[in-house]
Amino acid sequence: MKPRKLMYLTHRWLGAIIALQLLAWSVGGFVFSILDINDVRGTSDARAQTHEPLTPQSMASLPEPLSAMLVDPSQPRVASLTLIDRGLGAHWEARDAGGVLVYRMLPDGTPAGQITQSQAEQIALHDFLPESS
To answer: Dihedral (C-alpha) 110, 77, 123, 50: value to the nearest 10 degrees?
Structure first.
């Protein structure tokens, strides 16, 4: 093959590849400009059903392991306690003043531990796939 023809074909294929990349970039930018910025960033949990934080009067009705952990001075200080369902069933989330998750417990007060990869996938599917009706 002649060098001139090889340069022509190389230039043509490189141009086509770059054009496809620019097209994909432009279409992606257009789609993301239409969507709500909070959905694009993924900072909101669209389907999480949060409940009102517990009042000091209702702290006495908490399960024993949970209330014992809240008053234990060796444990991190809890600023908010919420009963929430993120798709794996209800559980308690205790957070410090900065909003960092300190504890995650089952409704009876036993530690729930860290979520597994399959549980994380289940939460993601619960949050982002439409419910079938």
So the answer is: 100
